[in-house]
């Protein structure tokens, strides 16, 4: 029953874990997750929210990065209303070649769950029936590997590049352009490959399913070597005089992964924990090994594993259950049953602890700075855990590590042995559960101390146990998270599928994964009886378990150069071994491949992709029910009457413009300090436990955005919380206590948060450099972006570095402490405050009085700070220059931007969304990714500020990519789209505009629109403009983006020092070179 543990790990918001790679990075701005580049670009500029990354990321897809993603991310629905427990008449025992094996009503999700077997092939299907309109489909193959050439990952990319029924270059991209999907992507795990889609539109859903089924069973890539070369690897040589290079999308994607020390660390841990089974290899591909892969091996792998007898299928939602069977059978009936040996061997537990030392590519580092990663990991068992042990382990993990106040996490933080916790506890995405915990930013001389600290703290907890209040808080938090089932922008059906597959794939019972109610209630009684549940568990799974590995990852400033030299030597050797005619062949192949990639599919061929009609799109906007009320002293109350399953979602927003500019870099840490130092009457631990007991969580963060047509941005501090309706008063009491009486004087905790922030930003810039580059460019042009840069970009990192030094001295700390108080007194006032609530009508009316009491407790107006916003002058803007931000990396992130409102006099028209998406999915995708070999290339238009930004992700090129950007306007002008193509582009855009949302997201979106002054009238105008987009609009937009190529355009790239300098050889004075790491 790892359901519960999974539920728990997402509840334990901080614990980052997960094990797969998406095929396309839908560029999630500055996320720590950026696993493998989703294809769809969610433009960073369009969501100028400074929201903590983890809030945007579905719990299941965080952190560990052992999986690869083809593309990624869409928004969140009302919980599936519990349907009746009586099996609907529509269920058939036998149909379309399937026979029903089992049925069960799962009350936790109001769903009938049916297990079918396909008679002819033995393929299994789980068919979930409920009222959720966000329908989900998935097919999963077991794909264990015996080397690190990355076959399953390259295959995952390649099968989506054309198939028997859809014989075009990239059906996947066509679907991104033209479907209403709420999810479209693919993941490679260490032992399986997973292809999920989702949509709320039934016809659209079937279209997606059909394209995916044809892709996995009849892909073009197994007969066309060029797909393998494009997505995997090939030699590139434009003419015989030039040096040979490697190209390939996965090749570069993995170079990016291997440049990130965090990713390296988790890869080494997995390989060290499982020396004897498939997990000792990297299914994503090691860039040094990928070029050993041959096309023949690639073909054989597909033939062996992509077979119905090795497949598990999943359907979920409110569509016709019989139609599902028919659809699948139309593909499966062509195959014969076969034995496919794909099971994952169990790693036998070793009796002796081991240790592994490896190195990562570091910059020269500041003087005296040491940055080792040190952690301890266990494989917890070589037998599947029973339901009760799994449940207990989930609770144990949450109690030890689930919050910053949890004792084991707190001990690591307080130790000052390192900058930030890594690992974060239990990981159950693979066959055997593991546990990893450690620190990064450690002095290598202290590495033994990290291990000693972890074991001694575990011993202590095994003896002392946990306080009753901690256990109560854990129970409430975990239950809340399970019942709320808030999967954010991730479809609920997909979250449930990943959970079920986690057992199903290992031939364990997938049904138990979905049922937690009974086990939870019996576990609660056991806890209530006072039985020592946790002590024995800490002993048996951790302390007395010697299958333990200590992993040290040490900095090596030479490694980047060595790696590059090794690659060069391999290429030279390969070249040396080639005869003259072989070299000719490589040159010929390079140009043939490019020509193929640059030739678009003819419109007749593209017509094979099924598409909806414009008449399928509702012509009017969907409104979120909103009532607005002016409260005393200039406060406003917004309320949204939506079904939320008895949960109240509430945001209180305070205007940040009362805070003087010089204090802005402290604001993010001020927000964190509010919940992490305790209040006047309770300690940090007590406060954290009260939050856990009474609510589903409280978070505080700055929010900024440009407002179209205005020079001044909006900027707020958001205090955001959720609780069961009956606990609303407790939540508001908590918010009041936090705002008014939170202590801001815990020097040790503050110092720790500074170190943590620094470490996370330093890894972020290596793994997600595009968002730093984009922020930097926007901050040259607008105040809102300048605020974002100050509170979250490279400028913020610079402030954090000096803050780290400042808090070391007593005088410095005194100053910081009084600055934190100054922020509070400038910020806190009910004047101008906005409270936003989302719940059903009864809850809303019950809460209204409590909100008035909450506001009445705050000062009416803040201490006068002489109109602080005036200090947010243009001095905050960055100078308008080109910059190279240098870090140790094997890949580049290249951004170029200008402001269409200011530089081109562009007036916003809804068609801009259509053109922007089209440009990203055609010209930029084809040239930057397909031809250029980068993992991603996209553009984003911020319709509030006017910034238009091109970005590339894990890109081997620099100047060539800029050349592609500069060709965009001419490309758009050259287009003459047929009516069909235009319709597809419009529908694809509407899919983004009408993105599926859970009720909390609907209420929050309404708040954001209120803050930005976006009315329903305006939304309707934009919608009409989108629906009416014509070829003329493409040309008009081409004229607008001409300014990016022209004098107004600026470039910022995250790259290596060597590459930055080599650009200067070619173009002296091109940019300022700035060493960041
Ligand atoms: Zn990938």
From TrEMBL:
It comes from the Eukaryota. The keyword Protease applies. GO terms for biological process: protein processing. GO terms for cellular component: mitochondrion. Keywords: Hydrolase, Metal-binding, Metalloprotease, Mitochondrion, Protease, Zinc. One of its GO terms (molecular function) is metal ion binding. Signal peptide: none annotated. It is found in: Mitochondrion. Residues 553-803 form the Peptidase M16C associated domain. It holds the Pfam family Peptidase_M16. Transmembrane segments: none annotated. This is Peptidase M16C associated domain-containing protein.
């Amino acid at each position: 029953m790892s359901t519960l543990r999974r539920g728990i790990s997402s509840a334990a918001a901080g614990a980052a874990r997960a094990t797969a790679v998406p095929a396309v990075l839908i560029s999630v701005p500055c996320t720590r997750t950026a696993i493998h580049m989703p294809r769809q670009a969610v433009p960073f500029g369009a969501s100028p929210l400074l929201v903590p990354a983890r809030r945007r990321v579905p719990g299941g897809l965080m952190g560990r990065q052992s999986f690869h993603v083809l593309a990624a991310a869409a928004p969140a629905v009302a919980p599936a209303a519990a349907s009746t427990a009586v099996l609907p008449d529509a269920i058939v025992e036998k149909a379309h070649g399937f026979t029903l094996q089992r049925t069960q009503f799962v009350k936790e999700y109001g769903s009938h769950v049916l297990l079918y077997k396909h008679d002819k092939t033995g393929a299994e299907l789980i068919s979930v029936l409920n009222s959720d309109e966000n329908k989900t489909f998935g097919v999963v193959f077991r794909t264990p590997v015996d080397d690190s050439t990355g076959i399953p990952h390259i295959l995952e990319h390649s099968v989506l590049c054309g198939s028997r029924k859809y014989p075009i270059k990239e059906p996947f991209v066509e679907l991104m352009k033209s479907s209403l999907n709420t999810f479209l992507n693919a993941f490679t795990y260490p032992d399986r490959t997973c292809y999920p889609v989702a949509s709320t539109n039934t016809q659209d859903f079937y279209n997606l399913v059909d394209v995916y089924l044809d892709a996995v069973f009849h892909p073009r890539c197994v007969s066309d070597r060029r797909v393998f070369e494009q997505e995997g690897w090939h030699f590139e040589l434009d003419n015989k005089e030039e040096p040979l290079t490697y190209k390939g999308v996965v090749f570069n994607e993995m170079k990016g992964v291997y440049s990130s020390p965090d990713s390296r660390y988790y890869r080494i841990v997995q390989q060290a924990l499982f020396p004897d089974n498939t997990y000792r290899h990297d299914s994503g591909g090691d860039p040094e090994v990928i070029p050993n892969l041959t096309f023949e091996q690639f073909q054989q792998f597909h033939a062996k594993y992509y077979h119905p007898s090795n497949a598990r299928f999943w359907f979920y939602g409110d569509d016709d259950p019989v139609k599902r069977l028919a659809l699948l059978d139309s593909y499966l009936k062509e195959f014969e049953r076969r034995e496919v040996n794909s099971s994952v061997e169990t790693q036998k537990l070793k009796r002796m602890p081991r240790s592994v030392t490896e190195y990562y590519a570091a910059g020269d580092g500041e003087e005296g700075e040491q940055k080792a990663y040190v952690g301890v990991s266990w494989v917890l068992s070589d037998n599947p855990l029973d339901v009760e042990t799994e449940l207990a382990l989930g609770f144990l993990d949450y109690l030890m590590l689930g919050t910053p106040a949890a004792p084991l996490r707190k001990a690591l933080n307080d130790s000052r042995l390192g900058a930030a916790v890594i690992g974060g506890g239990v990981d159950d995405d693979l066959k055997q559960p593991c546990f990893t915990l450690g620190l990064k930013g450690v002095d290598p001389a202290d590495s033994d101390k990290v291990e000693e600290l972890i074991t001694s703290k575990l011993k202590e907890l095994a003896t002392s146990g946990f306080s009753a209040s901690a256990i109560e808080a854990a129970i409430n938090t975990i239950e809340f998270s399970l019942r709320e089932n808030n999967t954010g922008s991730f479809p609920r059906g997909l979250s449930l599928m990943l959970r079920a597959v986690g057992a199903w794939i290992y031939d364990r019972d997938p049904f138990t994964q979905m049922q937690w109610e009974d086990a939870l209630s019996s576990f609660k009684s056991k806890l209530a009886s006072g039985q020592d549940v946790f002590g024995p568990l800490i002993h048996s799974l951790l302390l007395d378990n010697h299958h333990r590995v200590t992993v040290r990852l040490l900095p090596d400033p030479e490694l980047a150069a060595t790696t590059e030299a090794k690659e060069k030597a391999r290429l030279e050797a390969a070249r040396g071994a080639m005869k003259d005619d072989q070299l000719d062949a490589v040159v010929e192949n390079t140009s043939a491949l490019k020509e193929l990639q640059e030739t678009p599919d003819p419109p007749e061929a593209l017509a094979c992709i099924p598409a909806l009609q414009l008449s399928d799109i509702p012509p009017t906007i969907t409104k979120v029910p909103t009532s607005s009320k002016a409260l005393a002293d200039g406060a406003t109350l917004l309320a949204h009457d939506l079904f939320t399953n008895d949960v109240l979602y509430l945001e209180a927003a305070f205007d940040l413009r009362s805070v003087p500019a010089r204090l802005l870099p402290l604001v993010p840490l001020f927000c964190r300090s509010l919940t992490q130092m305790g209040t006047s009457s309770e300690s940090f631990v007590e406060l954290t436990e009260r939050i856990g007991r009474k609510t589903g969580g409280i978070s505080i963060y700055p929010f900024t955005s440009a407002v179209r047509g205005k020079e001044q941005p909006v900027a707020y501090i958001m205090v955001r919380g959720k609780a069961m309706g009956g606990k609303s008063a407790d939540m508001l009491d908590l918010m009041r206590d936090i705002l008014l009486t939170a202590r801001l004087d815990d020097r040790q905790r503050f110092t720790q948060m500074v170190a943590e922030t620094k470490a996370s930003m330093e890894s972020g810039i290596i793994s997600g450099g595009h968002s730093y580059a984009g922020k930097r460019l926007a901050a040259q042009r607008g105040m809102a972006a300048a605020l974002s840069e100050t509170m979250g970009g490279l400028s913020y990192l610079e402030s954090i570095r000096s803050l780290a030094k400042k808090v070391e001295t007593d005088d410095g700390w005194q100053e910081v402490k009084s600055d934190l108080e100054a922020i509070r007194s400038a910020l806190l006032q009910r004047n101008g405050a906005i409270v936003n609530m989302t719940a059903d009508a009864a809850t809303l009316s019950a809460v209204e009085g409590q909100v008035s009491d909450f506001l009445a407790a705050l000062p009416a107006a803040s201490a006068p700070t002489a109109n602080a916003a005036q200090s947010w002058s243009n001095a905050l803007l960055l100078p308008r220059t080109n910059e190279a931000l240098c870090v140790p990396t094997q890949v580049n992130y290249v951004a170029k931007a200008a402001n269409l409102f200011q530089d081109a006099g562009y007036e916003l028209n809804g068609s801009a969304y259509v053109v922007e998406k089209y440009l990203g999915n055609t010209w930029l995708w084809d040239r930057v990714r397909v031809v250029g070999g980068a993992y991603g290339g996209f553009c984003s238009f911020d319709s509030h500020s006017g910034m238009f930004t091109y970005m590339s992700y894990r890109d081997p090129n620099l100047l060539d990519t800029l050349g592609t950007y500069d060709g965009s306007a001419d490309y758009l002008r050259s287009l003459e789209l047929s009516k069909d193509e235009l319709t597809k582009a419009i529908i694809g855009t509407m899919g983004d505009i009408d993105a599926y949302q859970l009720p909390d997201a609907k209420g929050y979106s309404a708040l954001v629109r209120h803050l930005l002054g976006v009315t329903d009238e305006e939304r309707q105008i934009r919608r009409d403009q989108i629906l009416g987009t014509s070829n003329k609009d493409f040309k008009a937009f081409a004229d607008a983006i001409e300014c990016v190529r022209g004098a107004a355009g600026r470039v910022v790239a995250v790259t290596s020092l060597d590459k930055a300098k080599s650009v200067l050889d070619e173009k002296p004075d091109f940019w300022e070179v700035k060493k960041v790491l």
